[in-house]
Amino acid sequence: MIKIIDKLEEVVDFAWELSQNNLYASYHRIDSLKQLKNNIEKAIGSNNENIIACYHENVLCGVCIYHWICDEKYAQTTLFLIREDYEQTAEELIGYIKNQLAGCELFIPVPFTNKNANQYFKKKNIECIESNIDTRLYNLEPHINQKHNKVEKITKDDFEEYAIFHDKHAIPLEMYYNSKNLQKDKCFRVFAFRYDGSIHASIFVKTGKEISEVFGLFIDKEYKNKGIESILINEMLVQLYNEFGCIKEIVYFIDENCTDELDSALNAGFEIKDKCRCYKCIL
Q1: Buried b vs exposed e over 267-278: b needs ≥16 C-beta within 10 Å?
Q2: Which pTM value belongs to this model?
Q3: Residue 4 burial (CB count, 10 A)
């Protein structure tokens, strides 16, 4: 049985217990009980976010928080916790969301350590679209780094030119932040590497004083593994510090196969926090 949750107390203890266990956790990870309570209360009161629970014989078996953007046919879970009978419970949770958001794509991220989740999605032939290493940089400090003359900050005046390069990489990856959606969000900063008059690499980051997040580093195939990844990451950190000062946390998900990008991030001060996969369900 699926139930829409309207009281924090119904699920908070269950969700806290499972989110702290590597074998049951979902993604993103919950760092504190306060954060979990805030997430649940926000979902209860939101117009485009929901929290549901699955019960078997009046026993709580699963909890899911998800949000959606109808115009984009997009939905994503931010909590997907199941204790037992993983397949049955997952089917019921996803089935409920499908009835509500038919035609949308539902993205469900889970950590590597949740074997039940990864085995379920593999068994059901649900596409794994990302397999990432979650890295973090805490308390950004001034970077003593000479500005690289081939890196430039993209502005509204040259965004149209940049958009062509961006979509060449973003669209095949089915990334939500294609150039159109990127331009809509005024919190993004984009830094591009230009050589011989053309853009061949970029890094784009959603900024905030408390938390910023790198959403992608794009680089043309022939320019990979030549040190450009490191140049872009370090230039980004310099620019962020100059604009925002000591940002408390910068989040950066890196494809597990991009070893040079990962090495460049680690050399710049990022630390590995976790590993996760993201699955895409067609509702």
Answers
A1: ebbbeeebebbb
A2: 0.80
A3: 10
